[in-house]
Amino acid sequence: MSAERGSGAARTVTAAVTGESRANEPAAGRLWFGLLGGPSAWAVAFVSTYLVAESTCVRGGALTTAGVIWLAAALVGAAAAVAAWRAQRTVGGAFANGPLREPQARSDEPVGRRFLSAAGIVLSGTFTVVSLVQSLPLFVGVGC
Amino acid sequence: MPPEPTGATTVQLASVVRPQGTGAALIADLWWVMLWFAVAVCAVVITMLIVAIARGRARAAEDQVAAPAGLPRTSRASAQFPATGQPPTWANSLVLSAGVGVPAVILIGLLVYSLSAHRALAVTAERPMTIEVIGHQWWWEVRYPDGGFTTANEVVLPVDTQVRLELTSVDVIHSLWVPSLNGKMDLIPGQVTQLPLEASEPTVFWGACAEFCGTQHAKMNLVVRAMRRAAFDAWAENQSRPALQPEDGAAAEGLEVLLGSACVYCHTVRGTNASGRAGPDLTHLASRLTLGAGALPNTRGNLGGWIVNSQTTKPGNRMPPMQLSGPELQSLLVYLETLE
Amino acid sequence: MITDAPRLRDRVERFEGSWRVPRGFAGWFATVNNSDLGARYMVTSLGFFAAAGVMALFMRLQLSVPENTFLDPETYNQLFTMHGSTMMYLFVVPFLEGLANFILPQMLGARDLAYPRLTAFGYWLYLFGGLVFFSSFLVDAVPDAGWFAYPPLSGIDFSGLAMDFWLLGLGAIELGGIATGIELAVTVLKLRAVGMTLNRVPPLAWAFLIMALAIVVAFTVLLVATLLLELDRAFGFNFFDPVAGGNPLLWQHLFWIFGHPEVYIMFIPATGIVSMIVPTFARRPLAAYLYVVLAMILTGFVSFGLWAHHMFTTGLPLVAAGFFTAASMMIALASGTQVFAWIATLWGSRPRLAAPMKFVIGFVVIFLLGGVTGVMVASVPLDAQVHDTHFVVAHFHYVLIGGVVFPIMAALYYWMPLLSGKLLSERLGTWNFWLTFVGFNMTFFPLHIAGLLGMPRRVYTYPPGLGLEPYNLISTIGAFVLAAGFASLLVNLVLSVRRGVDPPADPWGAGTLEWAVPLPTPNYNFRAPPVVRSLYPLWGAGEGRAEERARDADAATADAAGEAPDADRAIPEGYAAGRWPGVTFDPRLDAIPSTFRATPVTSVIDAVPQGIWNLTGPSYVPILTALGVTLAALGPIVSAYWLSGAGAVLAAVCMAVWLWPTPDERERVLARREREEYEDPPDAPEFSRRLVGKDTAEPGLWGVAMFLGSGAVVYGTLLFAYFYLRLYSGAWPQGAVPLPELALPAAAAVLLLLSGWPVVAGTRAIRRGNARGLKNWLGMGLVLGLAFLGLHVWNVARAGFVPSLNAYASVFHGLAGLVSLMTLLALAIQFAVWLRALRGHFDSVYNAAAQHSGLVWGFTVAANLVAYAVLYLAPRLAGFGS
After folding, report:
1. What is the pLDDT of residue A15?
2. Is A58 near chain B, with CB under 8 Å?
3. Contact partners of A by the rule of 3+ C-beta pairs under 8 A?
4. How many CB atoms sit inside 10 A of residue B10's CB?
5. Alpha-carbon distances, residue C343 vs C274, C293, C747 (angstroms)
6. Measured between beta carbons, which residues in chain C are less than 8 angstroms from residue A3?
């Protein structure tokens, strides 16, 4: 059949378009949450803890709220990393079986999705740790 | 201003790394720790980079001997690329350990160190002596609320005592910085900020405005004079007194010149009718080390030149040239020199 | 099939005709082509670079000896203000935007950027803004309040006309920057080659994506901040005036929320450039690609958490400053990741040390030094000492010249064959490298020491006797060596264009797609859209483990063997310089579509084809729109508000023309849908059919979404200002202003909420093909929207206080004014869509404009409701603030 006589890549893409390799792909929403959940939670926490700290120091009060916000950001980051990890199990990526390596593959696999899920595990995981490190000034007891 | 010898007192060279006060000492320790880490990190990374390239160049040279055709060029190049295959299998481990792991440990350590130093820099004394510094374009108004007097462009403080500067500004944002004693702090209109200062040696320290504040930002300097307690008390006692009333001729004429000129619109001399607020208080002008906020050493010649036309020394400053005859100027200088 | 040659020749002729740039003087102003405009961007920015460099030499001469009188203080202050502002706003970011404009489509396999007219608009606005900015020299009102323009010094009491040049000239540039940012981001997301999945996006394209998104956020904040300051100056608002309840630190917050990301907006693409050059010269793929990409994303995010890092000496609460120290240190990890990825790439390779590689090595060394001093200034206590001293001058020149200008020079040497069709001279390149490297270190290393010895920044002179003399003298000599280095770059550029070596295709043997474009670069970059299956399509599919590479190689061989005749034709003339196993050009798509400009659109993650996106041809509308905006900005400078009005009208009319579809565009789309087989051979695979027969409006939707994202940042910035002012205000509302009443605002909010429904219903109706429904619903939405706007304006008018009263009044009227403006804009768009609906423009498929307008209105409703809650409810809430 001449329609399939394009290059290998063309065949691949045809397969992707017709949905052949989409059976076990995770929803894009979960992948994007996995990638951006951690950093976004950090960003929101950053601006709000800054304002809370300023407000507390100007008006008085305890800094516990800031600590709670950082903890919440770390939890969201962890949830995003877990979501990315579960997405990766669905696409059969690098982390599920074998050592850490870049998810690269043949062109007929959902490589973009696999990449995104691996990226989400690392990035959201990192931001979980970053959010915890951000709360250090509260524990070192710098105060106002 | 040139930190020339002024009387018996020498102005210390300003240096972040040769601290003369508690705050600056703490920061200098932090500086040396960070510097050595920085040197180590640079040394390791640059060595690795050089080794990677040098070894590669050596291999490339061997290749040339083996295959005299030279480096692959043009269309042949793409056929031969990638000639050396893949990055090492341990590339990811290297990136994660050397690029993330080790720096993370170092940085978190430095972060905790920095935060604790930060806390230690806060005002700690129970009831510290307070000095108010008010920024003006381009000079410093210095008030001693305890002594009830105001001076300008120099902060005098007792040694080994924590002093709290309360800083604000009447026009734009300035920043007070005395490198040998502590970090800097901004003077912000509408707000009051604090800066603790504690000197360990009875010397004179050089300070500057560090926030760009307009035309003469560069010549908005100050000196901090640290004195032993007794000397400080005597100084404060003297400062709190109004200006002496001159009795003999020249000085008395000088006072008349002062009161009859435009000087009084901007300057105050306590004990006389001169009560302007726009410029520095001159009550004890002669006791100060510098003129024009550190622009010149306070000598008679400099003072005369400053009065006649300060715009040559500090162009753009707010003091207009004074139209005074020679004798008028001379008697004014005689009077001003009595304001010890 | 397109096997019959004459038919193909006809088609190619038509294709090239529709991509032709009009000739001559007129064509120069009408072109919207990405390579023309990208090159113009870069040349213009290099001109500004030279101007700012000369200013720096004057400054260094003045500082060579203490108490020098070569320059007077006013001139010096003007020079450092112009030097900093020019370098930051007029050189680095525009150069990188120009490079992105030029290289991105080629690198991604697209025929042009997503919105060609927007490319031109961005460039003209940049040029006009820059000219306005520099015209301050003509009237001797040169800005002199620093590139950071802190009020009160930049306020009306201390700065005259000069600051208006600064604020309004830069305002125009920022607007152009936001437009370009939106366009670049959408291009990377939507216009990638088929098969260029997210893990095959070249690092530089990732970098440009992150840069573009950061620009959209950061430049929007700055644009709002400059507008607020101009309101203070021209109309007596009090955002930053402490006497009337404002706060000068608010400006510092807003400025640095822009200013710190700005550093990374420049630095991220610079690292992207390095991540392209290192693999080429190491002749192997980039190591740890995943981590390099993630490091850039992390940098992009964390760069927004560093702003107060510039405000450590303003008396921030200790714990708040601690948050910023922590974030500042975390960002160093991202740099560490990238540096070690480059080292790992080079390790065990046989690197060629051609000029681009020399600059890359210089970059790593210099940037490393700037990076470690960056960690130092992130520490609050240490920063309290070195902040605003020459130590910081040294630090950021290490970061910006080492970290950004060196990669820019590397990029010029590397991509010059694509830019001008010529190679730069290697010999001059070696001179260029050593002069800049030595000159740079000579100029800036001593300044670290000068800073530690107590030399503040921005001083036109310094006293003798502090030990500063030797360092300043060495630095001045170094500055001239550095200047000689940059001059040799200029000479090299000029000489190479005039009589340089014609390079072969892909002269460096690089692996990425831009090198598959024939030289000289055709307007359309690719005649047939490429299909890629590797991060390095020109090197082959080998991007994974050894066994995978072997499999890929087998597949490529099989393809080549089995389909040789087809495959040969697959590479159109001029693209056949090599046999690239990782990229294919489908012959069925060669020069298609031929009668109008279009480029393929693919999905974001897996780069699956979705359809084609119509691109607009040459047009005078962009330059006229930019002219209108510039005239509007000039009004306050020359105190002629009629000029602002005229400019605004011109810009508005041009925008209307811009957004109104040309008749042939609409007919073309409708006609093609009727004849689905348009140029579409019956044997084409499904994906080809998608690329030929199906229009997609997805890039348009993404663009609208990003525009609204920028709008959300505008609202967010004003809300930040509101709460920040409230935080430092004793009573809220300030002064004698009473609490706002609730009844009428509540009614307005209800009207606003109601107005959302007809718009949703109208969009639904047209998707079902109900054109009449759309007309009626939109009409109803317009009535409700107008009613809201009327009530809102009435509410504000009877509030009983003017903005100049105090800071509360200013921020109240500022936010209320934003509500009015956004509503007006959304209503205008909706009105235009309604007019088109009346003319029967839409049906169940061709209705993108209606959907976009619905999206804009939905955003307006949501954002205005939030603004209303803050305006009318927040003053009543105790707790936060008062």
Report:
1. 42
2. no
3. B, C
4. 12
5. 12, 16, 64
6. 683-686
Query: What spatial distance separates the first Cα and last Cα of chain C, rounded to whole Å?
Result: 75
Contact assessment for residue C496 and residue C416, using Cβ atoms and an 8 Å cutoff: yes
What is the pTM assigned to this prediction? 0.93
How far from chain centre, in Å, is Cα C695? Answer: 27
Alpha carbon distance B309, B306 (integer Å)? 5
Q: What tokens were used for C334? A: 């991202």
Nearest-CB residue to C685 (from A4, A105, A111): A4
Q: Do B111 and A136 touch (CB under 8 A)?
A: yes
Q: How confident is the model at residue B59 (pLDDT cuts 50, 70, 90)?
A: confident
Distance of alpha carbon A105 from alpha carbon C543, whole angstroms: 8
Contacts of C308 in chain A (CB under 8 A): 50
Helices (H), C563-617: 564-570
**Contacts of C869 by beta carbon, 8 Å cutoff, 6+ apart:** none
For residue C133, give the amino acid letter: F
Distance CA C276, CA C266 (A): 16
Q: How far is Cα C535 from Cα C518, in angstroms, rounded to an integer?
A: 20
Interface of B with C in 54-83 (CB under 8 A): 55-57, 59-60, 63, 71-75, 77-83
pLDDT tens digits, C476-497: 999 999 999 999 999 999 999 8
Q: What is the C-alpha to C-alpha distance for residues C120 and C123, in angstroms, rounded to an integer?
A: 5
Interacting residues of C240 by C-beta distance below 8 A, sequence separation 6+: C151, C152, C155, C228, C229, C232, C246, C247, C248, C250, C251
Q: B291 — phi, psi (to 5°)? A: -120, 150
Residue B134 has φ and ψ, to the nearest 5°, of -120, 125
* Contact indicator for C496, B66 with CB cutoff of 8 Å: no
Residues recorded for chain A: 144
The alpha-carbon radius of gyration of chain A (Å, integer) is 21
Please check whether residue B118 touches A, CB under 8 A.
yes
Q: In chain B, what residues touch A133 (CB-CB under 8 Å)? A: 108, 111
Are C506 and B77 an interchain contact pair (Cβ–Cβ within 8 Å)? yes
Report residue A22: phi and psi, to 5°: -100, 0
Enumerate the H helices of chain B as residue ranges: 22-66, 74-80, 91-94, 102-120, 229-240, 249-260, 263-266, 300-309, 326-337
**Burial class of residue A48 (count of CB atoms within 10 Å of its CB; 0-12, 13-18, 19+):** middle
Q: Which chains touch B (3 or more CB pairs under 8 A)?
A: A, C
The answer to whether residues C388 and B36 touch, using CB atoms and an 8 Å cutoff, is no
Which pLDDT value is given to residue B11?
65
- The burial of B71, by beta-carbon neighbours within 10 Å (0-12 exposed, 13-18 middle, 19 or more buried), is given as middle
Tokens linked to C302: 């964390």
pLDDT of residue B246: 85
Residues of chain B found within 8 Å of residue C145, distances taken between Cβ atoms: 212
Kindly determine whether residue A140 and residue B116, on different chains, have CB atoms separated by under 8 Å.
yes
Listed as ranges, residues in chain C with pLDDT below 70 are 1-5, 540-579, 663-693, 878-882
Q: Are C85 and C186 in contact (CB under 8 A)?
A: no
Contacts 24+ apart (CB under 8 A), B90-94: B90/C344, B91/C287, B91/C288, B91/C341, B91/C344, B91/C345, B91/C347, B92/A100, B92/A101, B92/A102, B92/C287, B92/C288, B92/C291, B94/C340, B94/C343, B94/C344
- Pick the closest to residue C1 from C517, C583, C695, C565 (CA basis): C565
CB atoms C326 and A118 under 8 Å = no
Neighbours of C443 (CB within 10 A): 24
Q: Are C166 and C145 in contact (CB under 8 A)?
A: yes
Rounded to the nearest 5°, which phi and psi values hold at C333? -65, -35
Partners of B130 in beta bridges: B164
Residue C303, number of CB atoms within 10 A of its CB: 24
